[in-house]
Amino acid sequence: MTSSEPDRTASRRGLLRKAAVAGGAAVAATAVTTANATPASAASGDPLTIGLPNEAAGTTTVLSSAPGATLALKNSTGAPLHLKRQDVTSPEHGSIFPTRAGLGYSVHESGVPVRYEAHTTANSTMLVPIPPTRILDTRSAEGRTRLVEGAGRIDSQGRAVADSFLVVHLQGIAEYADGMLGNITVAKTEKAGFVTVYGRGDRPNASTINWWSAGQLLSNGVITQLGAYETANGEYYPDVVGIYVPKASATALILDVTGLLVFHPDSAVINSPKTTARTSLAAESGTAEVRARQIKALAERGDREVRTGE
User: Fold this and answer.
1) CA dist., res. 3 & res. 102, Å (int)
2) pLDDT value at residue 305
3) Is 263 exposed, middle or buried (0-12, 13-18, 19+ CB in 10 A)?
């Protein structure tokens, strides 16, 4: 979601053409077709003219005593309501207005206006729980099928040797997700050591799980970002997680995913009821095109390179 430039005619209320009015409470509207129409008066107490720009110096109030909604907007060919963005410094109580971060609304606390942002795909992620899914188990060849880097760093006991960097992809589970929740397990530890799980950027100077002796079996919860990765052969994976095993100790690694942090629910591929009917991000028409644009825009907002048709 992006915000438009500030509206330089903020006092103008552009409403859609009236199509039907029922009981004075519902207004159905279609797109405005009148060009260069003369603005209509919309002073307090005056009715609004549908299909024409309405200019008002102050607040225009719409009242109704009907049991239903005071105002209902419908447009079969476009948006039923368009809010122009502008900088709002002292919003009135109950105000709703577009902002650079999404959609703002104002309440008064102790007589002082306070602005909040509505949580939307423009400014926040959502948690999508998924069935526990194992994406790595270094103890078996089958458990290593998602490794895009580090397969050659596994010893005969199924342990990642010391000073190893493993990269695991989440293809078929996530599509341009922002992060993951899961569980990291170490087994067959050689001696005291630790492991770091992370998704993007430089390796952090922190541990995700620690152990203090040989032969331990321990688990810990993990929440981390996801990132993108391109192999030396040019294979691109938009959703990966990295695991660093420092020089201290070799260990077997098991990583399970239990939830995804996404900007758009369709990024949780494994949990989507549309999975069997999904099309790739290369889609160029209809609903698939809209979905592709949304996911790509959100991924790019997080500095994730987006590639299609792969």
Assistant:
1) 7
2) 66
3) buried
CA distance 190 to 192: 7
CA nearest neighbour of 267 among 221, 209, 306, 212: 306
Closest CA to 197 of 215, 178, 183: 183
For residues 109 and 172, state if they share a domain.
no
Task: Check if the beta carbon of residue 18 is closer than 8 Å to that of residue 29.
Answer: yes
pLDDT at 92: 79
Query: What region does 24 belong to: left with phi over 0, alpha with psi -120 to 50, or beta?
Result: left
Task: Say what the pLDDT of residue 303 is.
Answer: 58
Domain of residue 34, residue span: 1-83
End-to-end CA distance of the chain: give it in Å, rounded: 25
* Total of domains in the chain: 3
- On whether both 172 and 218 belong to a single domain, the answer is yes
Residue that has been written with the tokens 């293809």 in this structure: 171
* pTM of the predicted structure, to 2 decimals: 0.65
130 and 111 assigned to the same domain: no
- Is pLDDT above 60 for 32? no
Using an 8 Å Cβ cutoff, are 15 and 51 in contact? Answer: yes
201 and 233 housed in the same domain: yes
Do 199 and 255 belong together in one domain? yes
Sequence-distant (≥ 6) Cβ neighbours of residue 138 within 8 angstroms? 144, 154, 158, 159, 160, 166, 252, 253, 254
Q: Are 252 and 158 in contact (CB under 8 A)?
A: yes
In a domain, 273, yes or no: no
> Over the stretch 188-229, which tens digit does the pLDDT of each residue have?
999 999 999 999 889 999 999 999 999 999 999 999 999 999
Q: Pull the structure tokens for residue 65.
A: 């005593």
Q: 99 and 163 in one domain? A: no
Number of Cα atoms under 13 Å in the Cβ half of residue 23? 11
